[in-house]
What does this fold into?
Amino acid sequence: MRLDETAAGLFPIAVTPFAPDGAIDWASVDSMTDFYLKAGATGLTILGIMGEAPKLDLDESLEVVARVCARAKGVPVVVGVSAPGFAAMRALAQGAMTRGAAGVMIAPPNTLRTDDQIVGYFAQAVEAIGADIPWVLQDYPLTLSVVMTPSVIRRVVEAHRSCVMLKHEDWPGLEKISTLRAWSHEGAMRRVSILTGNGALFLDFEMERGADGAMTGYAFPDMLADVVRLSRAGEREAAHDLFDAHLPLIRYEQQQGVGLAVRKYVLMKRGAIASDAQRKPASALSAKAKAEVDHLLARLAKKDKRAAL
Amino acid sequence: MRLDETAAGLFPIAVTPFAPDGAIDWASVDSMTDFYLKAGATGLTILGIMGEAPKLDLDESLEVVARVCARAKGVPVVVGVSAPGFAAMRALAQGAMTRGAAGVMIAPPNTLRTDDQIVGYFAQAVEAIGADIPWVLQDYPLTLSVVMTPSVIRRVVEAHRSCVMLKHEDWPGLEKISTLRAWSHEGAMRRVSILTGNGALFLDFEMERGADGAMTGYAFPDMLADVVRLSRAGEREAAHDLFDAHLPLIRYEQQQGVGLAVRKYVLMKRGAIASDAQRKPASALSAKAKAEVDHLLARLAKKDKRAAL
Amino acid sequence: MRLDETAAGLFPIAVTPFAPDGAIDWASVDSMTDFYLKAGATGLTILGIMGEAPKLDLDESLEVVARVCARAKGVPVVVGVSAPGFAAMRALAQGAMTRGAAGVMIAPPNTLRTDDQIVGYFAQAVEAIGADIPWVLQDYPLTLSVVMTPSVIRRVVEAHRSCVMLKHEDWPGLEKISTLRAWSHEGAMRRVSILTGNGALFLDFEMERGADGAMTGYAFPDMLADVVRLSRAGEREAAHDLFDAHLPLIRYEQQQGVGLAVRKYVLMKRGAIASDAQRKPASALSAKAKAEVDHLLARLAKKDKRAAL
Amino acid sequence: MRLDETAAGLFPIAVTPFAPDGAIDWASVDSMTDFYLKAGATGLTILGIMGEAPKLDLDESLEVVARVCARAKGVPVVVGVSAPGFAAMRALAQGAMTRGAAGVMIAPPNTLRTDDQIVGYFAQAVEAIGADIPWVLQDYPLTLSVVMTPSVIRRVVEAHRSCVMLKHEDWPGLEKISTLRAWSHEGAMRRVSILTGNGALFLDFEMERGADGAMTGYAFPDMLADVVRLSRAGEREAAHDLFDAHLPLIRYEQQQGVGLAVRKYVLMKRGAIASDAQRKPASALSAKAKAEVDHLLARLAKKDKRAAL
It folds into this structure.
């Protein structure tokens, strides 16, 4: 199975489950995979920024890829391979494909500035991993400090047939989605899949602007799948109602640094993983923060029973 | 009237009203001031980042200060005086105080990196404007790229008696509020007022962590005043209910760049200002974006009649 | 007199002379102007980054412009007008032209990232100051963090007839000069004047790549004028010999932050200004640093008598 | 052999030799090692920023370490292990020590801002690699965007006994050396070795301020060793004379991006390596740039015969 431009729906950004001692919790890797699939995932994204990928060495990373791909039979798995050097990127990308991945995801390094630097970087990346590996272009200026105009994205997409998806998490980015979609509609740009990130903070409108789905790790992937489904079915108010109910928690989880701790805490409460431990260096929730998350869950449970934990 | 450490409640970040031709709309300056006061503002903040301050020359800036101060009788007015050079900062700060301002607000330039650079910068700023002008320390890393630890804030506060308020808009920043409040409680740091920004995206929990109120420009300042009041009165669920109803729009308005256009558009619809024009260079709302805001208002109106416009 | 594309030779970046108490030292403004002209300057640049411009308020800035223009009869004066807002930029640019300036210089703000943002910024700047004011595009990524490819520079130059000069201080930038010159030679780009900065650290080769001269403030402008003259006369080895003799001091003066203190110290020793004082906030030379500069001057004096002070 | 605080002299930043097809040129690894040792190196630094380390995968990196350590019998080898994640850093650091390295070098990631973030990062790094591996703290703000005050360096040094050396390449940084040396002299800070980088652009004065030697990769390491030796012997003018003769080329090689191409070109001409090829993505010298380097070498040869190639 290979990722292509028709990808749609929900590709959750998976966490990497650890035991409290820092070892990878393989049983939780399995249960988490099952959890995402049951939630309605049409794909999976692993070893992303929120997957604590830099804390794994290459062998561990490849073992995670193999385990998830084996478990997620029939569902495409995208593997984050961003790295400061092309040697590490190639080793991980090729190793991941061998182990069953459907494609890889590449983010630009935060030192890029000009349009040409960005376009040139992705050309080098494609040369490094090979033009036959489908890949996702990650556009995430808030964290990566690299700003890509629609024109730059088009240049990259047009230059590389193997670029099949945009992970869109520009902020604000609604107009960007509209621009890219209009170009594809007019024949001015090859159509690629657009899945959106940003912790789902704008998922309601991103879908209405033309996104094909979500690629983010909010701890209620089942809600994300529902919003994507409702929105694609044209049930606009129902989609907003569900989304709005979750927005207070989505917003809370979207805090940089703290967000992963919130996400793992809720996933643990939901039974997806056994422990909310992060491998060192780890961020942790204070007692006050945990109480705030519990409070948000209790309030949410009044509108969505899945939050009654 | 001079700003001091007891400031609390709502100090809206005021927009600067322009006519479509770019001239300052003085009638709207008045109506906007009245609007904020009627909404429950206990103070006003003008010429901030969202007040298009860099588009005004010094004479215009001082005229705005004079006009607002004259209109807002009895309510303290804080004036943003951040500038790349201390000559401009001093001219604006001293001119503002002469015209009735209660204090000024200073943000650090985005080139500062080390703790000592930050502390040193504010020492230079205080020397430039004079130690007798009360001032607000603006902590806004998302936009300014300057990261201040609680320790650095304490060093600044302890060094300058005239620093009477922290405009807190670190993100995430809940633990920072808790830390600063704990220090003041233990006597380890002089207590200053803490008002929070970030477009109110975390106002619900910021109040619970110990903030004294809000200093932000969301287009429903009356709601902000209500949330602050309810939270201080201990009516926690009522505060969250009201806040959550507005969160979809708060979130939408919080988009960098587009946010001001949204804010002015809603303020215009509410009658606070005559036009949503920005002076050049201006951001504008697309037709789709306007429709999205209208949709959000319509949905909000079901829960808060003030949004029925 | 108006700046145009034929500008060449030496346009020193002038310091702003202050008395030890921080007042502008008007006598030294005159003596400094005379010094630069006597050194062979074909133009002057004032209120640049190294001219402590942000420490002057608007009235002071305009008074400096008037004084220098009056003194420098027959020689074009370029005025730095970079500002965070277009209101301040317009006020200074138009005020400067009224007082006799030949043109202005504009640097991009350090928040710009994409090619389109850069091109758009200069379009807004030209609209703000008026399309009739000749201006210099400053390309200084090391300090400004804005990276402009040759293509972006061409887009700006082609869009604005009033852009007549590039102040080139990219580093490394030799290939950029060659590219721009080749384009002009082929008719692919309007030819503008290129003067180079970077404290003259690469002046020897910049001239050989096609620069028209120097726009920098090294404390021996007479040497800069000589190198420009020798290089244009084809006396390559003589140009390098003179340049190399000064390189140890050029390199020392090129240190960020300390550089201005070195420059003013040497200019004071040479009699160009009465005091090396900077207006606050000031950088200062330690005793060790002064001894190092004195040592460099003593060594230089063996090869260039002008350094025997 | 383990690196310790007494390290001094010259630790060249070694290039990584490649064949034109991108394969590691093992014969040149040997000849380059011999070349550095013959030039007077008292240590070697490999896999640094200028060593194209990110282009090597882990196995290749460890093979380079083993080869150089075996060849450089009796001379300590420092291995750059900077990485975006601690898993990769640990794997390389521990693998390098097993293969004979004397210590490792760690640079901070460019996302660090506050003093506490920097101190915390190195604590995490030491925990990751183990407290028994001697390491070099790299302070290189120009490239890394992380600014460390002397106080922060002291905090790191005091917290970790295994930190035995500072690679100093702050710019300007002369006062920093003086401050750190004064603190050690007064007993206010444990004395560590200070070797300086920055392409040797300030080596003359860095030695006089108290540096123990050079850690940089200028293509004439024999000259660096001479300057270090002359300076330590108190032969000040002789040190400056030799240094000044090389300064035009040092300056040319110091250009970011182009610098490595210049360095490899000269090393190839000197016979240290067989090819100046870089592994992709590579920077290359234009014909004009090569001619400029040749010109600089020809001029240098008049004063230092080692440049007659």
Observations:
- The beta strands of chain D are 9-10, 44-46, 77-80, 103-106, 135-139, 163-168, 193-196, 213-214.
- The first strand of chain D starts at residue 9 and ends at 10.
- Chain D has one domain: 9-235.
